[in-house]
């Protein structure tokens, strides 16, 4: 990664993926002018999908959630460039890629400082042909070996000592070849110890149950046992 730092702005980017001025990569108007906006997804904010010179990418601005987010939409207290949400997420993605975890390739990140606060954006690979587990389970059931694979994926993440702070079935994707991916590593971090791993698994379990109640996804409580078998590398 190359770091381009000025007094009030810091941009991290992969020079093999960013062609030209990196700052324009964070301007959605630039992508509209190139007729390169391929879609969008609405969550806390809007994630735009754009077609770059090397790959399709997801452009996301960082927004606050919760009650405080209604008062302060997208500003964060500045304590240093390396501690910004965008910089931290980009580094974590790079670390996970080094560990051979299936996460999107980090392309670039930016933080812009105003006074004592900053705003941030990140640009990552859009996994081709991938859908989240909610979309998949809304149409079809998964087999035991699919749930084993989900458990193994989470175990690999935990073995890398990374806690996904929002581990839910919206953030687990499966592509056309059946490969699983993990996305959205905002506020995630490396941790020591073991207790957090159990809590992280419990969060994923609650996600299955929540979506079952909310959307009637094709998941049954007994399917969770298959996830745990995969997590614990139990083959029978």
Automatic annotation (TrEMBL):
Q: Its catalytic activity?
A: an alpha-Kdo-(2->6)-lipid IVA + ATP = a 4-O-phospho-alpha-Kdo-(2->6)-lipid IVA + ADP + H(+)
* Localization annotation: Cell inner membrane
Record's function text? Catalyzes the ATP-dependent phosphorylation of the 3-deoxy-D-manno-octulosonic acid (Kdo) residue in Kdo-lipid IV(A) at the 4-OH position.
**Looking at the record's lineage, which domain of life comes first?**
Bacteria
| Name the record gives this protein | 3-deoxy-D-manno-octulosonic acid kinase
- Recorded metabolic or biological pathway in which this protein acts: Bacterial outer membrane biogenesis; LPS core biosynthesis
Keyword Cell membrane listed? The answer is yes
One Pfam family hit: Kdo
Query: Which lineage do the record's taxonomy fields give for this organism?
Result: Bacteria, Pseudomonadati, Pseudomonadota, Gammaproteobacteria, Vibrionales
